[in-house]
Structure formats: structure tokens, C-alpha cells
Specification:
Layout: H1 20-71, E1 75-82, E2 87-95, E3 104-113, E4 118-121, E5 124-129, E6 140-146, E7 154-160, E8 166-173, E9 178-180
Antiparallel strand pairs: 1-2, 1-5, 2-3, 4-6, 6-7, 7-8, 8-9
Length: 184
Amino acid sequence: MIKGGEPKLTQFVKENGLNILEVLIVAGMISMLIVIAGSMGTRFFVNRKVDNITRTISSTLQIAKLKSARHGVEYQAVVSYDNSNKSLTIAMQIGDSNRGSERYTTETSQTLNVSNGISITPSNKIINFNPNGTLGGSSGSISIRPSDGSKITRCGRIVVTPFGRIRVIVGNWDGTACKPIREP
């Protein structure tokens, strides 16, 4: 038996409040969670920006192709990237004929801000759709990728075939190419 009798249960139970050590431990854990969430949030924001640019360009191309078929005249999408101002302008224009339009009138235009570390090539691209859904000019692609030396890994690519098929690739940049996240 213990001298002085049995220990009282109230000796081990705090009566009120937190001590300073408990407060410091909780504050440290909260600050670590904030740091982890902040770095993940930054990466998420940049990925969303690249995905948004890719989606906006491909949507404009799809709408131009559909409007060309519906109205029976040529439509073209004009994509212009200004690297010095970090702005991307996407315009949809309607032609004056069903083949070989000489004049185009801008129907819609939008300008997007492009984050630092992202580049778009080519800087100027015109994609012309005929009423039958095929291209009136050359086919090609538009690439959204990290700038040289950037830590960004997300990339996107829009490929347009001579038959008017629009294919969107969203992936991760491996230093030389945009590797799709998942194959379509």
C-alpha cells in the first residue's frame, strides 16, 4: 500500500483550460496544414488556368465549325497570343461566301489573361471551317505548355485535322512533349 493512502482521482484531472504546450502543438499542426494546402492550391490554380485556356480555344473551334454548317458560309477562328502582355485573344469571324470568302466580319471576341510560366504556340493561328465541316485552310495544332524554365507541368494541345476533327489533349509536360493524362 502507498504511504499517505490512496491517490485521489482529482489529482490527475485538470479543472479548466489548456496549458501553453497544448496550444503550441495545435498551432504548429495548423500551420503545417496551411503550408501543405497552400502549395497544393497554387498547383491546382495553375492547372485550372491551363485547362481553361485549352477548353476555351477548343470550344470556340467547335462553335465555329457548327455555325459554318448551320449558316452555310465559312467561319474562322483567329487565335492570337501576345507574349509581352501575356494575353490571348480568340475571335470568331463569319465569311461572306460558302467558299473562298474575301471578307470576314468579327462575330465574337474574347481576351484571356495568361499566367506567367505558360506559353502558347503558334502565337497566331487562323482556322477556317467550310460549311461541310472540313477545313478551308491548313490543319494544325495549338499548344499550351510551360515556358522554358517554368516549374509548371500541366499542358494542353488542340489538334485540328483537314476533315475538321477537333481533338483535345490535356496532359503533363515531360520536357519535350505533352503526355496525355489519359488516352481518349
